[in-house]
Each structure stands twice: as C-alpha cells, then as structure tokens.
C-alpha cells in the first residue's frame, strides 16, 4: 500500500482524469488531490493513542510508529479544556428556511429563530475539508424540511476541519463534539419550562460521524431531559479511528439507535476513507460498502490491474460521498413511496450473495436503509444494491444486473452463476 501511495505522488501531477460524480469540480479537485496525497505522507504519518485501553497505539495511515505516546493528551479529558474552535450553529425550519446563526456563550439566544423544543431536532455535521455551504448539506437540509416539521441545525466546524493536515482535523473532532454538547445544553437551559421534548437525531459524514459520537458521549454526562435518540454515521472516517476503543469513535453505545451507511470501507488490505467494520445497531453496506457504482473507471489501470492512482483517490472520494446522497434520497422517497432501499441480512462475505439478494423483501425479513431504518426491529449488518446514478434506489428486476456489475468493480469472483 505504501508503494502505491508513493506512485500516486509521482504521477499525481501528470494524470488528469475525470470522475462522473465530481465532474463539476474536476480541475480544482485535481490540484487539491495532489496536495492532499502529499500531506498524507509528509504531515499526517502519526499514530493516535487510545489512552483508555492500556495505551494501545493506533496507526492512522499504516506508515509505522512515530509520535504516538506524546499525542495521548489530545484524546484525554484535558482536550476539552483547550482553546475552543470557531464552530458555527445554523438553525432553520419550515417556517424559517433561511438559516439563522445562533452563538454559543453569553451571546446565545433563540428569540430570532423558529426553534421549537417539541419538534424533532436534526443536527448535520460535515467532514474533513468541508463546510456548511456544501451542496449536499443544503440538499439534505431541504429534504428534511420537506419530510417533516423539524428543527434543523447545521454545524460548521470548517475552522477546525478545513486544513490539509488530516491528523490535526481528527484531533479537533473531540473539541467540536464538546462544543455541540454545550450548545445543546444552552438550548435546554433556555427551554426549561417545556413539557414535551422532541428527540435529537445527529447526522455526521466522515469525521463528522465521530464528532457526533463525541457530542453524544459528552451530552449524556449532562443528564438532560432532552435525549439524543439517534445517530446516523455516513461512512465514518477510517484513518486514525480504526481499531480504537469505543470511547474514541462513534459507537452503538452512544445513542439508543445508531445506524451506519458504509460506502468506502475496505475490508481487506486496501485503504478506504470509511470504517469497514460494523459499529452501529444497524450497519448498511450498499454495494458491499467498498466502491460505489458510477465512481469507478475500470478501463484506466496500470498493466491492466492497478487503478491509476489519481483516479483511485477520486473514486474513493466519490464513493465516500455517496453515503450522504443515499440518505437524502431516502428522505425524498418518503413522499413518493415508489421505491425503497430494501436491505438484506449479510455476513460481510460474498458467498451466495446472488441468492441473498434474490429473496423477496418485506418488513418482516428486511430493513430500509435511510431515514426509515429506525422503524424496524432488525439489528445487524445488511447488504443492498443501488444504481450508478440518480435515482439510486433500484427495483427487484434490476438487482441481479447491478450486483454482478458491482462485484466486478470490487474484484470479487465469488458470485455464483
């Protein structure tokens, strides 16, 4: 894998390729990817230490042991006492669709907002190198407001995550989670006379998923009447969080219902941007959870085997982002009811996968990926198939064709005829 990344650095500046799902941002992305890959090698080759589990060292990028022991402080309780980041909280609702920023601390106040504590509250947290004005966040926000009469809070932590030093951004996740819990406490203090408390649903992409975990862990300590009922992890980040104690990453103990959508988690030796292992009550693996259809260019390879490095990185970013696209589409499907992201129990192997998905689905044996997931009693790991473009939800007649295509992408030969 290290040799592969080194090849990426050498060839990244001369190989300009397009990814269908990112065609509107290709030029800027090519430049960004060059810097991103270089940074991975030169600035972020460090280990996290899980100080809660016998100082177990956790290798972020598989590049060997470096300064892990000296970094244990950052994930200790002392980290929350460090200088606070500039985290923005942007509120919206059906009656007030334009966002209103609410400040934490002495300036806090809800009087200029349409926030109502009895509604369900949705909190959306972006990931690495992102911000609150990303198109996908706006689309998800609008989809939630169309779906139901909810409060939506978009968290912008770009001051701590919009840096080429991934390692630094990962360290900041705990502090951001702490600030979210403080913000929620401010709301509870301002609404103490409430008799009906809506539930809280945290949604985080990549590093944002782990921020949600930290926020939930911290908010539990405050023993509020307000409950974080659900956390949805959208391809939770793998680097620095894999093989760590549950106190370090998003985990099913963080809320009564934790659902995960895995879209770029490598189960074997290849590095993926998302965690491959199940960490929730329900873990969805659309198309196997490794590479998503529409993000892969099978004809651009070295020696007919290795994907061209820059293409490989773009494919990973594309697949990583499908997690939030799938959730948003599930919200939009609730108004049409013409398709469901039906998901089958799966043992995370490709044995007999064709037989697994060919079984008819209903609420007694399957579960829907997306917003409706919490309506089902099923728990465990689940497989489903999507199409390679919007709409991503597929009907039963398309399943066999799509799964064969996807297994070819993942270099799997185990599909039975």
From TrEMBL:
List the catalysed reactions: a 1,2-diacyl-sn-glycero-3-phosphocholine + H2O = a 2-acyl-sn-glycero-3-phosphocholine + a fatty acid + H(+)
| Compartment(s) of residence | Secreted
Q: Where does Ca(2+) bind?
A: 251, 254
Every copy of the Lipase domain together lies at 79-392
- Alphabetical list of CDD domains matching this protein: Pancreat_lipase_like
- What GO molecular function terms would the record report? metal ion binding; phospholipase A1 activity
Which residues are catalytic? 206 (nucleophile), 235 (charge relay system), 320 (charge relay system)
What GO cellular component term, any one, is given? extracellular space
Q: Which residues form the signal peptide?
A: 1-21
Which keywords does this chain's UniProt record carry? Calcium, Disulfide bond, Hydrolase, Metal-binding, Secreted, Signal
Keyword Metal-binding in the entry? The reply is yes
Q: Name one Pfam family in it.
A: Lipase
Entry EC no(s): 3.1.1.32
Name the source's superkingdom.
Answer: Eukaryota
Please classify the protein's predominant subcellular localization into one broad category.
secreted
What family does the entry list? Answer: Belongs to the AB hydrolase superfamily. Lipase family.
Provide the protein name: phospholipase A1
* The organism of origin for this protein: Vespula vulgaris (Yellow jacket)
List the top taxonomic levels of the source.
Answer: Eukaryota, Metazoa, Ecdysozoa, Arthropoda, Hexapoda
């Amino acid at each position: 894998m290290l040799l592969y990344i080194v090849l990426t650095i050498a060839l990244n500046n001369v190989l300009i390729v397009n990814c269908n799902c990112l065609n509107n941002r290709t030029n800027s992305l090519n430049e960004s990817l060059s810097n991103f890959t270089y940074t991975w090698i030169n600035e972020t080759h460090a280990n996290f230490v899980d100080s809660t589990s016998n100082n177990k060292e956790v290798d972020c990028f598989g590049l060997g042991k470096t300064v892990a022991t000296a970094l244990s402080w950052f994930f200790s309780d002392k980290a929350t006492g460090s200088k606070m980041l500039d985290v923005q909280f942007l509120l919206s609702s059906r009656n007030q669709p334009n966002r209103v920023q609410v400040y934490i601390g002495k300036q806090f106040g809800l009087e200029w907002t349409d926030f109502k504590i009895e509604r369900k509250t949705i909190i959306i947290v972006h990931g690495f190198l992102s911000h609150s004005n990303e198109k996908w966040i706006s689309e998800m926000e609008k989809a939630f407001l169309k779906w139901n009469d909810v409060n939506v809070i978009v968290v912008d932590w770009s001051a701590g995550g919009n840096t080429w030093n991934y390692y630094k951004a990962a360290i900041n996740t705990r502090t951001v989670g702490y600030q979210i819990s403080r913000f929620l406490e401010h709301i509870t203090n301002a609404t103490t006379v409430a008799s009906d408390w809506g539930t809280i649903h945290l949604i985080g992409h990549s590093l944002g998923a782990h921020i949600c975990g930290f926020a939930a862990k911290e908010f539990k300590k405050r023993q509020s009447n307000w409950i974080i009922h659900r956390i949805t992890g959208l391809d939770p980040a793998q680097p620095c969080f894999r093989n760590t104690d549950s106190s370090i990453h998003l985990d099913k103990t963080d809320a009564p219902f934790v659902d995960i959508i895995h879209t770029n988690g490598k189960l074997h030796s290849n590095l993926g941007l998302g965690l491959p292992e199940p960490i929730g009550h329900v873990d969805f693996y659309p198309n196997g959870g490794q590479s998503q259809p529409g993000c892969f260019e099978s004809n651009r390879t070295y020696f007919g085997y290795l994907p061209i490095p820059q293409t490989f990185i773009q494919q990973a970013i594309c697949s990583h982002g499908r997690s939030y696209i799938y959730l948003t589409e599930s919200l939009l499907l609730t108004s049409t009811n013409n398709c469901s992201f039906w998901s089958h129990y799966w043992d995370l192997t490709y044995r007999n996968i064709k037989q697994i998905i060919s079984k008819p689905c209903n609420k007694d044996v399957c579960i829907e990926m997306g917003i409706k997931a919490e309506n089902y009693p099923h728990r465990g790991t689940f497989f489903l198939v999507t199409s390679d473009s919007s709409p991503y939800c597929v009907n039963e007649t398309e399943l066999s064709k799509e799964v064969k295509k996807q297994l070819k992408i993942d270099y799997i030969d185990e599909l039975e005829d």
